[in-house]
Amino acid sequence: MTAVSQRARPDLGANEGAGATAMLHVSAVNDYDLTAIRQDFPILARTVYDKPLVYLDNAASAQKPRSVIEAVDRHYREDYANVHRGLHYLSTRSTELYEGARETIRAHINAASTKEIIFTRGATEGINLVAASYGAMALQEGDEIVISTLEHHSNIVPWQLLAQAKGLVLKIAPVDEDANFLFDDYVDLLTERTKLVAITAVSNAVGTITPIEAIVQAARERGIATLVDGTQAIVHGLVDVQALGCDFMVFSSHKVYGPSGVGVLYGREALLDAMPPYQSGGEMIRTVSFEGTSFADLPTKFEAGTPPIVQAIGLGAAIDYLNGVGFERIAAHEADLLAYATERLEAVEGITIVGKAERKASILSFTLDGIHPHDIGTLVDRYGVAVRAGHHCAQPLMQRYDLPATARASFGLYNSRAEADRLAEALEQVKRIFA
Ligand code: C6P
User: Fold this and answer.
1) Nearest in space to 47 (alpha carbons), one of 382, 418, 407, 412
2) pTM here?
């Protein structure tokens, strides 16, 4: 099973290559209509500082296709009302569309039931929910949690706080110099006291694709619960939760071309059923009296308050859009971009690419000799190129490589080889300024 799919680099097209800046809308992947895809994203037509926008900050948050913008717009114009509350026409309609989005997501990640799909504010809230609720139910003093050096702060800090509160031990699976996940070292960390493994499928900071199937399997064989941070993985390929066999998986909508303000927690039904509520109030109850409260069935038990209705519908539209393009084809296009951009950037003298794992998503973290990453980010911006510079919410990973920060170019389905050229050219300009 391929939980995170990525194809080998396809053959290059005849008219693409270094310096092909006029070929902005050509993909080297056969049958991938990059011009049409780019036209689906209205923001890509804009300029910044009088230069065509080159948006390479997709890992921070991706741009939205017209179909998502229109789904949100249409809902507010035609179908909006609160969900699960009213008997009137619009409430029923809004509920149908909201629950329809839940079914789209269930099908996409191959969950067994929509009861297993909890809408959250994002990946961060999903992990906090599991830490608070599963943590309260299943973890005792002295128990161990295994995470990895690659984790985003969202998959570190909730476990640290839980460890402090309950006297747990947090163990860290290491990576090598190239940011490869060290699987044997990870397995060595698993003991009889290990109760939870919480590991990312793809690093947002350096792009490493971890052997998440094997990571989950090794934990399952030992009866250890698993949480997969799928936030970056879901962008680059499919995550099939049943094939993976994980207990929990989280992701955010905004990175997968959907609206911000919503995300998904997948949890195995039996576990979610047994877990105590996370937040409480309206929506998540069955009955309330001053003597006591009983709770709603899944998934509503974990969706206290008015949910992010329109955002969830927008996320459903984003998944529909991506399925329309085809995840396999997107993965092939991004693999080509990664290979091409790596080659282009490696040709820039003084550059160091941070993270050269054998299996990588289309993320390039790098430093330039003698130039702070923040200066790189600020200066390439003047050439219209948007990248992120900083620690990427992965400070322990930066510490692993003794770096305060990197610049990060993250490529999405609408980026082109010519945009990788624009980045390389902008970096040469930055070097000239500093020389
Ligand atoms: N990474 C980035 O620039 P939220 O903020 O809740 O939507 O997602 C948190 C998160 C968790 N795990 C991974 C692997 C992530 O990449 C992110 C978000 C963004 O890389 C914003 S910090």
Assistant:
1) 382
2) 0.94
Q: Which of 232, 257, 365, 387 should be mutated for ligand 1, with most atoms under 8 A from CB?
A: 232
Supply the residues annotated as catalytic.
393
C-beta of residue 170 within 8 angstroms of C-beta of residue 160: yes
Question: How many A from CA of 336 to the centre of ligand 1?
Answer: 24
232 Cβ closer than 6 Å to some ligand 1 atom:
yes
Nearest alpha carbon, ligand 1 atom 21 = 60
Stated as kind and residue range, the H or E segment containing 406 is strand 406-410
CA 263 to chain centre: 10
| C-alpha closest to that of 159 among 204, 203, 128 | 128
Structure tokens of 153? 């702060």
List Cβ neighbours of 343 (8 Å cut-off, separation of 6 or more): none
| pLDDT per residue as tens, the chain (435 positions) | 334 433 222 222 323 333 333 345 668 888 899 999 999 999 999 999 999 999 999 999 999 999 999 999 999 999 999 999 889 999 999 999 999 999 999 999 999 999 999 999 999 999 999 999 999 999 999 999 999 999 999 999 999 999 999 999 999 999 999 999 999 999 999 999 999 999 999 999 999 999 999 999 999 999 999 999 999 999 987 789 999 999 999 999 999 999 999 999 999 999 999 999 999 999 999 999 999 999 999 999 999 999 999 999 999 999 999 999 999 999 999 999 999 999 999 999 999 999 999 999 999 999 999 999 999 999 999 999 999 999 999 999 999 999 999 999 999 999 999 999 999 999 999 999 999
In angstroms, rounded to a whole number, what is the distance separating the alpha carbons of residues 103 and 117? 8
Residue 180 DSSP class: -
Q: Does the beta carbon of 365 sit less than 6 angstroms from any atom of ligand 1?
A: no
Q: Which residues contact 222 (CB under 8 A, 6 or more apart)?
A: 190, 194
**Ligand 1 atom at minimal distance to the Cα of residue 60:** 3
Instruction: Assess whether the C-beta atom of 60 lies below 6 angstroms from ligand 1.
Output: yes
Domains of the chain: 34-63+326-434 (3.90.1150.10), 68-322 (3.40.640.10)
Contact 408, 59 (CB under 8 A): yes
Cα(238) to centroid(ligand 1), Å? 18
Q: Which residues pair with 354 in a beta bridge?
A: 365
Q: Amino acid identity, residue 140?
A: Q
The one-letter code for the residue type at 273 is D
